[in-house]
Design brief:
Number of strands: 23
CATH superfamily of the largest domain: Ribonuclease Z/Hydroxyacylglutathione hydrolase-like
Number of helices: 14
Radius of gyration: 28 Å
CATH architecture of the largest domain: 4-Layer Sandwich
Strand order of the largest sheet: 14-13-12-11-10-9-8-23
Shape: elongated
Helix content: 25-40%
Mean pLDDT: 87
Largest sheet: 8 strands, mixed
CATH class of the largest domain: Alpha Beta
Strand content: 25-35%
Number of domains: 3
């Protein structure tokens, strides 16, 4: 059983020997060690084979006991420069007073003894608190002639080992220090992740950079860059449908009537406060009237805001289980992929994932079929009948669709999307997510079959629709509410084109 761990050992003789002894005592076999003393003399990666998880736990406990286990993520800065020292006794000693006071680790010192500048000393330093670098440089410049050769306060240009550490530190800037335990586990698993990405012909550096960008994008669009593209549709005299499309992630749908209000999907949790503020500003009613939430699938951008509401959230059993184990690939053929599990955990953390607490699970009994999809539940909204269709698990195991033939509505989750309706910023974010999880669908072949069948259902509904003027409205998990043209192409009707709204308080 292969495991990865990261240690923080003292830079002294015998330190590696002590760590190896603990690993050997618990029957661990070290298959790889990686460290770079020039960059960071303390951080060391181990790849070890152990008989079982119990043995690995004992190794962790042993390293922790002697203080060798890396348990925090402090920034590392790297500085390389030339300093010209006066040719007199004690000059080097005086210079070292500055580096010592800055708690800098000296990677190397090199006098240009045989060159044109015997007074020139080349210095390379690593500093755990990178904020001190600026202060150190200012102090040195006031005393010496300085030539900066490399200045990387965040060590972004260093070797792969330090790149991974900095990757975790960049995530820490987004998530805060409360997730250090997860980030350290991520570092321990990094070689496994890199290997799986390489097998899929993915560039690990590109993937890791997209992860950081995803977190940054969610954070900034939940603050002063928040907006929503909104569609408002009068379905009947007293029934209105609203679609809220936020800068990132999935849609929120609201069905509102004088008798009832329901929500379909809840968006990212990080947008919840802005959504409530926007809803109130538009005078669309009182969200406290919300009686039920219906969740299409477990992804954070669809289920991640439901926990802020007290009303029950209805979902498939597999959706509830995927939420609880934090793996979007649950129940699929790629469930054991470390990438899907890492993606799920990261996007949940980035997006302030607050899943439904008050859950109602759809029964598993099949009530009938709609084409190839089992009908597993029905519900009423203001006197209109909705069927809950169980997907075949192409996008996610446990995804469901909602069909109301009387109102001409088909909610497709992420199985059917009008990509042309996405704005450029939404397309860019969707690309980041695709890089991150390597595949949007857990089973692409089944997903293709589901798309074709949903198109057929929408076409059939168009032909039989007599109660509305708009025919079948396809309410997808992302992008604008659309309809089908004669060539089966998804189009946005002009009368329900999205209108972009910003909060007046921003």
């Amino acid at each position: 059983m292969k495991h990865y761990l990261i240690t923080r050992m003292p830079n002294e003789p015998g330190a590696l020997h002590k760590a190896a002894k603990i690993i050997r005592e618990h029957h661990g076999n070290i298959s790889r060690i990686h460290y770079d003393n020039r960059i960071d003399p303390h951080t060391t990666f181990f790849e070890i084979d152990v008989p079982d998880n119990k043995a690995f736990k004992k190794i962790i406990e042993g390293l922790h006991k002697i203080g060798y286990l890396q348990e925090t993520l402090e920034p590392i800065g790297f500085l390389k420069f030339n300093v010209y020292l006066p040719n007199r006794p004690g000059a080097l000693f005086e210079f070292l007073n500055y580096t010592t006071s800055a708690n800098a680790n000296i990677a190397f010192l090199d006098f240009d003894e045989k060159g044109k500048h015997p007074d020139r000393l080349t210095v390379a330093l690593t500093i755990e608190r990178s904020s001190i670098i600026e202060k150190l440089l200012n102090n040195l410049k006031s005393k010496y002639r300085i030539e900066i050769l490399e200045y990387d306060p965040q060590a972004k240009q260093l070797d792969n080992t330090v790149f991974y550490i900095k990757f975790a530190q960049q995530l820490r800037e987004i998530l805060g220090s409360t997730e250090d335990k997860f980030l350290l586990k991520l570092l321990n698993d990094i070689n496994h992740i890199v290997q799986e990405l390489t097998n899929l012909k993915q560039d690990p550096f590109k993937v890791f950079n997209s992860i950081v960008e995803t977190g940054k994008r969610l954070k900034e669009t939940s603050e002063n860059k928040f907006y929503s593209d909104i569609q408002s549709i009068k379905l009947k005299d007293d029934i209105n449908l609203y679609c809220f499309q936020f800068p990132c992630g999935g849609n929120i749908f609201i069905l509102n009537s004088p008798k009832d209000m329901i929500m379909i999907d809840s968006g990212f949790g990080i947008y919840h406060n802005k959504f409530v503020e926007l809803f109130n500003e538009l005078n669309l009613g009182n969200l406290n009237r919300l009686s039920r939430i219906f969740i299409t699938h477990a992804d954070a951008d669809h289920a991640g805001g439901a926990g802020f509401f007290s009303c029950p959230s209805f979902m498939h059993k597999a959706t509830s289980e995927a939420i609880d184990i934090a793996n979007r690939a649950y129940g699929s053929k790629i469930e054991n992929s470390v990438l899907e599990e890492v993606y799920t955990k990261l996007i949940n953390l980035f997006s302030n994932f607050n899943p439904p607490k008050n859950r109602e699970i759809f029964p598993q009994k099949v009530l009938g079929l709609k084409n190839i999809f089992p009908i597993i539940y029905t519900f009423e909204f203001s006197g209109y009948h909705f069927d809950v269709l169980e997907s075949l698990g192409g996008h996610l195991f446990g995804q469901v669709y909602f069909l109301c033939e009387e109102l001409g509505l088909l909610f497709t989750g992420d199985s059917l999307i009008n990509f042309n309706s996405l704005t450029e910023d939404k397309k860019e974010f969707a690309t980041l997510a695709t890089i991150l999880m390597t595949s949007v669908n857990v089973d692409s072949e089944i997903a293709s079959k589901e798309r074709k069948t949903l198109i057929n259902i929408a076409e059939e509904l168009n032909k039989n629709q007599k109660n509305t003027d708009h025919g079948c409205l396809i309410c997808a998990g992302h992008g604008a509410i659309s309809s089908l043209d004669p060539s089966q192409k998804l189009i946005v009707p002009k009368e329900i084109n999205p209108i972009r709204k910003f909060l007046s308080s921003l």
